[in-house]
User: Fold this.
Amino acid sequence: MTKECFALLENKLSPHLHKKDTFMKRAITPRERLAVCLRFLATGDSHMTISFSYRLGHSTVNKIVKETCKIIVDQLMSEVLPEMTTEMWKAVAEEFWLLWNFPNCLGALDGKHVVIEAPPNSGSLFFNYKSTFSIVLLALVDAKCNFIYINVGAQGKNHDAGIFMTSSLRQRLENGTLNIPQNRALPGTNIVAPYVIIGDSAFPLKTYLLRPYPYNSGNREFEVFNYRLGLARRCVENAFGILTQKFRIYQGRIKMNPASVDNIILTTCVLHNFIRKNSENEVNSFNLESLEDSSLNNLRSQGGSASSQAFREREKFKVFFNSPVGISGMSEY
Assistant:
C-alpha cells in the first residue's frame, strides 16, 4: 500500500473511526486506529505484540481491530465490489478474451479453506479433509485478479460443491437476476454460446459453469480444452496468492472466533480490491509465476450429474478451442 493509497483510505474512513476526547484522556486518532488494524492484517502478529508496539492495551487492540474491520467492510464494500451491470459483465468478458484467450467468460471461480484455531464447543463443524479447522472463502475473480463476488462463512466440514450450490451466486445465476448478457457468438465463428464462469473439478458442470473434462483421457481435444480452461483459471489462483502474500495473517491459524474471522476475510478481500484500484504499480508488483503456491488449502474435487444442455454448451467451447480460429496464437498447441 502506497502512502497516497493509505491517505485516501484514511480520508474515507476517518469520520467513522473518530472518537471523542474525554477529560480523562485523549482518544486514539483515526490514523492510528487504521494503522493498528492494517498492521494486524499485514503481519499476522498477535494482539499482544501489536499492543507493545503501539503502547496500547491488549483488549484495546482487540477492540480496534474488530471495529475497524467492520467499518472498512461497511464503507468500502459497495465501492470495490459493486452490483454488476450488463455492461460491466461484458467488459469483464472482453478482458478475459484479450488477456487469457477465453471468450464469453464472466469470471474464474474457486474456493479456499482459511485455517483457524478450533472454536470452543464446535465439535467437528469446522474440521476439514486436511485435518485442520477452517472457514471457506468462495470467490469469483475477473481477468485482472480483482474479486467480483465473495462468499464467506461456510464451515470447513461442508462438502465443497454444496457450498457453491447453497451460495447466493448460484441462486442468482439460476434465477437470472445477475444482469448476465445474452448469448453471443464466439469470436470469428457462428457458434452461439452463453456467457459462463469457469471452475475446476470441485464444481458441478452447469450451462453457466464450465469445469474440465476428465484428465488423462488420451483425447487430444479434451486436453486442449482443459489447457485453455486451466490457463484462464490462473487469475483466481493468482488472486488468492496475492491475497496471502499481502496479508500475512493467512500464513498461520487465525486465533479468533468464527464471526470475527468472517469479518477479517471480508476486510482483506475489500482491501485487496481497493489497493489494486488505487495503487498504480500494484498490478505489476508480484511475480505471477510464484503466486499459485498459496497457503490456503484447495477444495476437494467433486463429480455429480449434469444436464445434457450443460454438456452441449461445454462442447461448443471445446469445438471452438480446437478450431483454427480458437487455436490461433496458442503456440503450445
Observations:
- The chain has a mean pLDDT of 88.
- The first strand starts at residue 105 and ends at 116.
- The two ends are 40 Å apart (CA to CA).
